[in-house]
Amino acid sequence: MFKTRLYLLSLIIACALILSYPSQAQQLPAFQPDPPKNWFALDPKADGFMGISLKQAYELLQGKKSRPVIVAIIDSGVDTLQQDLQGVLWVNTTKDKDFPGAVHGWNFLGGPGRKCDFSETAEEVRQYFKLKDKYLNTIAPSDTNKKEYAFWLKVKAEYDATIAKAKTELPQLSQVLNAMVETSGYVRHALGLKNNQTFSRTDLDKIVAKSDTMIQVKNLWLLAFSQDVSTSTNVKVIRELGEYLTKLNNELNPDLDVRRRIVGDNPDVLRDKTYGNNQLKFEDSAHGTEVAGLVGAKRGNAYGIDGIADNVQLMIIKAVPVGDEYDKDEANAIFFAVDHGARVINMSFGKKVSPHKDWLDSAFKYAAAHDVLLVQASGNENLDLDIEPEFPNCHYLDGSLHGDENVLNVGASGLKADFILATDFSNYGKNSVDLFAPGVKITSLDMDAEATTDDGTSFSSPIVAGIAALIMEYYPDLNVRQVKQAIMQSAEPLHGLMVYKPGTHNLVDFSTLSKAGGVVNAYRALDIASKMTASQK
């Protein structure tokens, strides 16, 4: 899963220092002014932000007719009552025997009684406990199980790293989270707020801290808000830290029986029976709501945000828990989306271990055979995916060629064409990541609220998915390869722009971090697509 933003560890360490040394002066971050709420849609030349030139794209489309396009959102679920999504949710008009009650999509983590297995552990943890009795004390594999033993070694290495990280971070994060909850009351009292009211970074400027305690509290919250826009609230920060804490706890204390109790299926059998339910909103569904909003939130209604595409139907598929998704759910989600008419599938998730990669290979090929585009987030661990691949991916186990013909892997780019255009958290790879798209301070929809702002490749991916849908709306005769080609060519290579390689302060040419070497642009993509249509005719 890619829900957690990478800055959390540095935040934990900085906050822990403040908690340990209340009188010690801390080097607080220099806050940057908020970018425009829709900066990702702006034009680099006209507006000075490395956005996608969406206004120019719609000017190009003026007077043209569009056809509706179904976009599947495989994610953590969606708040289907969100005002800005009304009228753009896909509606299943068929009597679906395999998925009874499916209206706007399906929940592959669901079980009887409207329950949901939304709190899971990492895949390497599940696989470690599945295989450890067989291989933990094995020195060398037999001839018949060499493949499984090699997989075990990969699982063991990832498990050890995951557990070591969780053991380090959990005590620190628990301390910080407790401090956040406790000190929220101090801040509210200083601001004269009621217990149910929230505060933001700008509110902290109103506090004149005279005691060491209040200085410590104020500095703690200034650090907590340091990576967010000024309107981010204490509730949002605590929610994100709480989700991360849950993830770490699930890794150290996994409930390995929760899937059986709630869903009741066998995750090691791809098509054993129909499973899941039609409930799409749970307490972890904020991430999916943000993703869906970027693709197709209702445009021009003076509420929330304007989505990228103006004539989409959003098919909601819940398959991503807090923790790692199951290969079975990923594959079946893709099959569901294709079988129910999706033309684009957004996949803002990923993991380090894939026990049934062949199932995902089959699903990717199924999508390709049905002319469906898969758009996926590259991930937020600042890894070179050419060296350390994550899953799912289009490098098929059977060595098939052209596995990427219908896949776009998207990295996260920053606000300006400067040395931090490649974000510090984004994964990259000259042969594995296709292109970059805006991925910092991205404002989209929230659950039970108007909007929220976040960072991550999770939000770069739906921006590209929205552009793909826009092309398909107005140029429906193009096939998936042409749509991908238009999008790739829109990301003009930024040769000579030196940027920090993600996670380092080593300068590299931005064009070396992805296949296209640039940032996606909706105007150029549509212009290219229009010429493809004309040349074919």
Please outline the helices and strands.
Blueprint: H1 8-20, H2 44-47, H3 54-61, E1 69-75, E2 105-107, E3 110-111, E4 115-116, H4 123-135, H5 146-191, H6 201-204, H7 212-224, H8 234-252, H9 258-262, H10 286-296, E5 312-318, H11 327-339, E6 344-347, H12 357-369, E7 373-377, E8 407-413, E9 435-438, E10 442-446, E11 449-454, H13 457-474, H14 480-490, E12 498-500, E13 507-509, H15 522-536
Parallel strand pairs: 1-5, 1-6, 2-5, 6-7, 7-8, 8-9
Antiparallel strand pairs: 3-4, 10-11, 12-13
Helix pairs in contact: 1-5, 1-7, 3-15, 4-5, 5-7, 5-8, 10-13, 11-12, 13-15, 14-15
Q: In words, what does this structure look like?
A:
By secondary structure, the chain is of the alpha/beta class. It has two domains: 347 residues, Peptidase S8/S53 domain (Rossmann fold), CATH 3.40.50; 120 residues, no CATH class. Helix content is 38%, strand content 11%. It has 15 helices and 13 strands. It has a seven-stranded parallel sheet with strand order 2-5-1-6-7-8-9, sandwiched between helices. Helix 4 runs antiparallel to helix 5, helix 10 packs parallel to helix 13 and helix 13 runs parallel beside helix 15. The longest helix has 46 residues. The radius of gyration is 23 Å and the shape is globular. The two termini are 43 Å apart. The mean pLDDT is 93.
